[in-house]
Every structure is written in structure tokens, then in C-alpha cells.
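so my prof wants the structure for this chain in the C-alpha cells format not the other one, which i didnt know existed until like an hour ago. anyway here's the sequence
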Amino acid sequence: MQTRNSFGVILLLVWVCSCTKPGIYAPVSLPNPWQDNYLSVSGMENYRSWGTYNVHDPACKKFGDTYYMYSTDAIFAENKEVAKQKNIPLGYIQVRKSKDLVNWDLVGWAFPEIPAEAVNWVRTHAEGQGATNIWAPYIIKHNDVYRLYYCVSAFGKKTSYIGLAESASPEGPWIQKGCVVKTDEQTPMNAIDPSVIEDPQTGRWWMHYGSYFGGLFCVELNPATGLTQQKNDYGHLIARRANYKKDNLEAPEIIYNPELKKYFLFVSYDPLMTTYNVRVGRADKPEGPFLDYAGHDLKDTTNNFPILTAPYAFEGHPGWAGTAHCGVWREENGRYYMFHQGRLSPENQLMVLHTREIFFNAEGWPVVSPERYAGTKSRRFTVKDMLGEWEIMRVIEPLHERQLEAGQVLWGEGQLVDDEINRSSVYHFEKDKTLREGGRWSFYADKQLLDLTIKGESIRNLIIFAGHDWERQTETILFTGLDQRGRSVWGKRIR
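here's what i got, hopefully its the right format
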């Protein structure tokens, strides 16, 4: 199995030791909980070892003391013959669970088959094509019932079906409750990628969904049934891009921040195998309007910011592409986590779960950790802890113009080119608050915030926190934040 029960014990011992030593914080070596390259266990017969592997379009919630994750059944080494021989389901929503957000067990598949009503709708309206898989599930609990939303579609078409199933357990069995929204080539939108939220003030339910075909939409649901409040209602437009057939936009994820009293809509831009990246807008109401960092409405045709994730590579690692289609979860203690797939470069075929902690900056915008979550305990740092060598990365939007079809790369364009991956640069923080490479730094220990001036640009309120350095397999100090244009700025101390 991929899970390492000893990892949490080692982590605890490391932090007990490091927290009791006086003086400057010194990173301690610590093995990664798993390898990023899973070719050795990629065969269908090894599916029980796919803890964080073959994860695509994840949705995660905590029920009781257990986290449950549901995802598209995308498998790197899918082999239908082997699956049939070994009685392994294919295409029916992967289900995982975890106690710590680090070690995950693949429970199995949610459904025994693709619901017949969905298959019939898609193939009848797509010339017999599609409906070979279930995409982008979303889970939400209503009273004592678990509701699992899902979509069935035909690739490159607007012929899609969002369905609902219910169960008394997050592990099923699931009872089909019917269609929420279905679309075809005559509708202006595409019924995929559902995300559902309840307005805590009014009790009203809303579903956000959609894609590059027409943009993202929001429709009201009936809390009693989980289906649309009004029959055959498609809702209203909340986000789109200028060239919706080419400039990909999909995967809405809606959350509420009770401290800020704001709703945040996370969306994904560009092709999923390469430059996939996460943007975000916010609103006072779950139905919008959602505004971006510059105050632009997401349903205008402006490309929106902030940009939170994009393809990246720190030193000592081949890097990650496809870092989007996220789920978000808020803990009872107010900590937030993002879950998304990452595709291991340079081939961008192996799909690995990335879990990142989310922070909200001084302006009330979400920012994410530069490194994946590995259970590191929180701690405070001093000015002396900032001294040393850092890798700093500017996360910017893709600049290369690709030839796309239905928002995705054409065959043969599955790898990143040089200007599509964000890379880090090394900076030395000196005692006199200067950077050896040019610039200045200031650390505010009371707020655990860092200000930087790099190449004449001032970047303020970077959030300092403890985390795991996956490339160097050590615990270290991290920071995250936004520059004045709404682009993410990431850093980690390496020496």
C-alpha cells in the first residue's frame, strides 16, 4: 500500500524536537509520504495502491472524523481487458477516504454502471457517441442524506447530463434520484462540473456548473429534493471568456467564508493536460455577481485574476502541469484546503492528488501554499528565521498561444513549452534586510507577514507558515501571497 502509517509518527517526533530547541529554526529532513512517479503500481491490478494516484477533478468533504473524496475515473494505465478479467469497475466515480488529508485509501467506485437515463440522453443527442465515463462528481450532505452530483457527457459537445444520487452513507449504496440539468447542441450552456452550496442566511441552495461552451451558470435548487427549484431551469450566466470555444473555462467550485462574509468562486482556465490554472472571484451572494481582483465581473470577457495555481517547477523536480479543477474544504477550526490534480512533467500523463492549504490575505483574497500539504504542524517564526537562501517563484498566466479544440490541446501538444512553466529563482536574505541579488525584505513577527521589494516591485503581506518541502524532502518555511496585479508569489527557504 502507498499509505505510510509511520509518516505521522516521524512528523510528530521531528516537530517535538525542533520546537523545543532554542535559537534559529533549522529545517529537519523528512521523507515524502509517497513517490510522485507511480509507474510501478499503475497497472489495473494495483488499484488498491492508488491512494493519491489517478486523481482527477476531486471533490472532498469531511464527514465525522473521516475525509471522503470523489473524483472522475481517469486512469493512466487503463486496460479494459484486465479490468474485466479482475472484475474492476471502470468509469463509475472513484471514492477515497483519509483521516489526515495525507494518507488516502481507495475505497472503490460509487456506481456499478453509468446511469441508463444519462447514457440514453447523451447518445441520443450526440449521434451515439459519449457516455463512456462519469465526470466531476460533487458531494454535499442534507440532513442525514448524502447527495452525490455527477455528470455524463460527450467530449467536445454540449450534450451533457448532470444527475443526482443519494445514500445514507458516504460510501453508498447510491439510489438514483434523477436529472438536475441536461443540455444539447441547442442550449447555450454545457451541463458539466457541478458545485453546490447552501446560503446560510436564507437556506436557499444553488448549483454552479458549466464549461467553455457558453460559460459558467448558476441555478437554484430545491433543498428538499436536490433538483432544480423550477423544472427545466438552466439558471443565469456568472462567468465566461471571450472566445469560449478556444479559451477554456470550466470547473466552478463555490465556497462561503463566514469570517469575511463572502462567497468565493474558484474556476479553471486553459487545457487540462498542460496549462490548466485556477482563478477566483468573490461575491456577497452565492448567485453572484462575482468580481475579480480588479473589480471586473467574471461574466465579462476579461481574463480574470487572481491566478492561484499554474504549471510550476521548483529546483530538483521535473515539475507539474495541469494544476487545476479544484475542490475546497473548510475545517471547523477555520483552516481551508484546496484539492486538485497535478500532472507529472514532462509527459503530463501521471495524475497525482495535490492538497494545498489556503490562506486569506489582508485584502480578503485566497492564496495557496506553494507546496503540497503533508501534515506539518503550525508554528511561529522570528526575524532570524528569515535569514538564508530562498527559492522564490512568480506564478503567472500562460503566455504561449496553443492550437485548441473545444478548449483542450490537440493531439501532439500534450507537453509544456519553456514559457509555460513557472520556475523559481534563488534569493539570499541578508542580516541588513537586503537581498544579495538586489532588493529588500521586512518581516513582521507579530503578524507573521513578509514584505519584499524585487526588481523595483513592492510585494506586501506575504503569509509566512511552516510546511513540507517536497523537492528537498525536509520541513521548512514557506510563504504565499499576491503581487499588485493579482499573480501568486511563492517562496520557500532552502538553506
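also thought this was worth mentioning. The chain is about 5% helix and 40% strand.
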